[in-house]
Protein 1
Amino acid sequence: MYLQTWLIVVFGILGVSVPVPAGPLHAQCSVDWYLGIPCKDHCRLCHGRTEVSVPGGRFLLPQRSVQLLSANVHFTAGKHTTPVKKFVDDVSFRLVPSDLYTHCRVSGFSISETWYVAFNHGTNYCNLYNLMEGSGLTDVPGYKEMTSAFICTQRSRANCTV
């Protein structure tokens, strides 16, 4: 009994160090892109090159499908279903004008709806990147991507070939 009390006091005072993996504990990804074009051009470019008129309100890229839920000049949201396991990911893009409305910052976020998915080989990153690439935005002047493994689960394992 004396030993248990002593251990509780020691760990209480010193604290217990438990290794925790860096980054989110759930499969998700956050990416910021900086574009040298106004946000209004991004919206027009996105809708002009990725939307396809099909039943169910979907816009398609080769081997990728995202159901569009809402879209306006500042925010776009949808759902992506993985082809094999049929997991559903929520995908969103927020557009913020910068540099006196001559440039655009696009903040993308994708998160797995399935609560127990912790590792997905970069699927959430690919959800975002494939839409940016498919819309032609990776080729615009001033394109720059900002993310890391800390805010984007398994970004380094992502294979976004379409």
Protein 2
Amino acid sequence: MTSRFFFSRFAKSWRERKNQIIYASKATLIAATWVPVVAYFANHVVWIGVIDGASMTPTLNPESNGLIRDIALLWKFGSNNYNTYKRGDIVVLRNPRDPESSVVKRILAFEGETVRTRFPYPESTCTVPERHLWIEGDNIHSIDSNTYGPVPHRLVDGKVTRILFPFDRIGPVSATGGRNPKAAVVDIHKEWNRLS
């Protein structure tokens, strides 16, 4: 009698475990099928990123203590299309000096335009080459095109469109800030006049 009870209890627990294993397998399979979708969205459509550093202060990370960092919506869809950008857009791009890291800067000038540079750039002006951008941080002490020159537009990964955190600053990112493009750009071509 006790052995029958033991085996019936064992069979019941085995069926429950088998059902749990089947359920866990199905759930894992369903979750695994969504991994490529999430990866595609993260790499090509939209992503949420944490903005590090003070190069875009006061537009991004205005807190000087560095404890509160901005979290922003990064729009990546169409980032390789040169014509989608406007003067004043804040973009995320691969660091020209270290392609494994990213930087956040503001677009100041486009190809064919001549820019009045700042120190440490070796010349007083620079004409932006074809399919390149002149980018600068809003903070005057930023390491930007004044350090490494015009950057190829293919380094751009996306555009910072909205601040999501801190909550008191939630909303669209300002298209103005940093150096005034009208004062910095000597020669703005009419076909590239992208002032918003």
Protein 3
Amino acid sequence: MSNNLKDKVIVVTGAGGGMGLATCKMLAARGAKVSMSGLREAPLQELAAEIEAAGGQAMAQRVDVRDDGQVNDWIAKTVARFGKLDGAVNLAGAIPQTFFADTVEKHGNDTWEFIVQTNLTGTMYCMRAQLQNMNDNGSIITCGSTASVMGEPGCSAYVAAKHGVVGLTKSAAKEVGPTRNIRVNCIAPGMIDTAMYQKVKEANGGEHVPFKQLIKREGRPDEVASLVCWLLCDESRYITGTVQLIDGGWTA
């Protein structure tokens, strides 16, 4: 276990469940000061209380990443309590209820705008505020998907947004690497056993999406959290501008 996250100030979006919750717990266990955001306040406050009861330092705030005012307020309050940021993990995201049915030909405007605003524009709002309040030598992680590196029929808004996250990541890495030594990387999970993946199965008629990965199981949130912690710590300090697939070999 790497211990060089001790006393680092790390912000995490999408912290109320799944990969975000697992990441926050792992960061706190490794000594980081964790500021968490998400749409559901109750689980965030419960997690913050759990971390503090175990001797860690945490704060939580309800944030809709589509609202840059809410994002900016959260980051300002984090800095006021813990100091400038050392790292950021942008896991907030959404899938449409019409997943697998959103062809380009039939796509509705409202669904398109919601998915792009949440997954791509929201990520930009968060990164902008984070970079404005981050120490040099920091690390930012965005969340793509296997949909960041390949197309999927019926998922056009989600695929477009997740491809956009990769472009945003690579552009930011080239902007802040040479000037501030801040690293920016994108994780690209495949089928991870989370509430969001349960929605994907519901959209697939309640059935498992056929296993295309080489490791014939769903990934676990803690496996994603381990990758995130590695990308935040100094053990990965020569890695930036990359897409880190964690998909069981789906895209091999």
